[in-house]
Amino acid sequence: MTHQFDPSALREYDVRGIVGKSLGPADATAIGRGFATRVRGVGGTRVAVGYDGRLSSPALEAALVAGLVAGGVDVVRIGLGPSPMLYYAEATLEVDGGIHVTGSHNPAEYNGFKMVLRHAPFFGDDIQDLAALAAAGAWSEGTGVVTTVDLRDAYVGRLMAGYAGGAFRIGWDTGNGAAGPVIEALVKLLPGEHHVIFAEVDGNFPNHHPDPTEESNLADLKRLVTENNLDFGLAFDGDGDRIGAVDALGRVIWGDQILSILVEPALREHPGASIVADVKSSQALFDRITALGGEAVMAPTGHSLMKTAMTRTGAPLGGELSGHLFFAGDYYGFDDAAYAAVRLIRAVHLSGQSLTALHDAMPALVATPDLRFPVDDAEKFAVVDAVVARLARDGAVVDLTDGARVTTPDGWWLLRASNTQAMLTVRAEARTADALASLLAAVDAHLAACGVARA
C-alpha cells in the first residue's frame, strides 16, 4: 500500500493543510505509518499522541493512532491539550517520540501535525522523508498497544515549579483554544486575582481567532484589563505555544519585548549565557542582551529552527517576535506559552516594578508588525535572492541568517520568505516615523525591481 500527500501540506516545520482539501484521515494514517517506521529505525517502541480543540482533531488523532500501531509502535494517548503538554509528555514519559494533532494558529478549517523524535524537532527533510516512505509504501509492520494517560495535573504542577512569588491581578484570554483547561487549572494555584475569558475549548472559535500576534484579536483582553484595572493581561494562540501580553493601559507587549523582560533574570542565573532571538526581533532586544553581559544570537524564524539554535548554543532562553518563547536550563527547551506566562509573572515580581513601568522603560522605537503579502511558492525565494544580489552590489550591511536583514543609519529592515505559506514578509524598525517610512520605501524599491508589490 502506498500514499501520496498533497505537497502543499508538507511544510518546513510540520504537516498542515485544509481538512477535506489538502489533509484528511488517510494522510493522518500515513503519517502514523511513516513516523512509526522512523521510530523503529532508531530502536524506539513508544510514541505519545495528543490533539488540540479543532473540530477535526479527534478524527485525525484516531487515524494517526491507527497508523502508528499498524507500524508496530505502542501509543500513549494524552488526549486534548496544548502542544506544550505533548512536548512535556515526550520529555518526561518513557516514550521515543511524540505527535500533536494541531492547526496551531491557522483558521478553523486547518489542521496538522507537530512532531518530536528523541527530544529533537522533526522537521524539514524529516517531513519530506515521511512523504517518500508513503510513496514507496516502505513502512514497518506490527501491532502496537494503545494506553491512555491523564497528564494535565502533572503538567500544571510542573508549570508552577517555575513560579517564584508575587501576587498580581491578571486577565487571561485563551481564545477558545486548547490551552483553556490548563490555564483554568493554573490560575487556581497562582496567588493573586485572575480573570479568565474564553476558556471553553471550541473549534469554531466563536469570540475571536486565537492568534495573539494580530492586535485585533487582543481587543477583548484589553477591555478586560482596562475595565477591571488589572495589572496586565495574557493571551494564547490556538495550541498554546505562543503568548501575547498587554500592560495595565492595554498596550500590546510583543514577543520580543516579553523576551527582553525575561532576559535579566535569565542572565542573573546564567551569567554570560547565549540568548537566542529570531531575525524579526527588535535591535533593542539584541542590544539589551549584550548590555546585560549575554551573548546575543540571531537565529532563523521558526520553532524547529529556534530549538536547534538553542541546543547548538546551550542557551537557557530564546524567543521569537511571534510569541514562541523557549526555556532550557531548568526546563526542557521547548516553546510553552503557559510556562512563559509563569516566568513573565516571576520576572515582573523580581524587577520590583509593574509591567507597565517595564514597558515604559523600553527604547522608543517605531516598528511595523509582520507585513505579509502573497507571492507564489515557486517565486518567493527567488525574489529574496534577487534582492540579496542587488544589496551585495550596493555594498549594504546585510545579515543573511534568514532572508535579508539590512542595517542602515535609519534603522533596519527585513525581507524573508515564509517557510509555511506562499508569502513574503517585511518588517522594519526605526527611531522615528519618517525614518521608518524611508526604510519601507527602500524595501518597496527593491521589490518593484523584481516586479513585486506589497499591495
UniProtKB/TrEMBL annotation:
Domain Alpha-D-phosphohexomutase alpha/beta/alpha: 11-128, 166-249, 254-362
Keyword match Isomerase: yes
GO biological process, one term: carbohydrate metabolic process
Domain Alpha-D-phosphohexomutase C-terminal: 372-444
InterPro entries reported in the protein's UniProt record: A-D-PHexomutase_a/b/a-I, A-D-PHexomutase_a/b/a-I/II/III, A-D-PHexomutase_a/b/a-II, A-D-PHexomutase_a/b/a-III, A-D-PHexomutase_C, A-D-PHexomutase_C_sf, A-D-PHexomutase_CS, Alpha-D-phosphohexomutase_SF
MF terms (GO), sorted A to Z: intramolecular phosphotransferase activity; magnesium ion binding
SUPFAM superfamilies: Phosphoglucomutase, C-terminal domain, Phosphoglucomutase, first 3 domains
Gene3D superfamilies: Alpha-D-Glucose-1,6-Bisphosphate, subunit A, domain 3 (3.40.120.10), Alpha-D-phosphohexomutase, C-terminal domain (3.30.310.50)
UniProt keywords, alphabetically: Isomerase, Magnesium, Metal-binding, Phosphoprotein
Swiss-Prot/TrEMBL cofactor(s): Mg(2+)
Protein family: Belongs to the phosphohexose mutase family.
Name recorded for this polypeptide: Phosphomannomutase
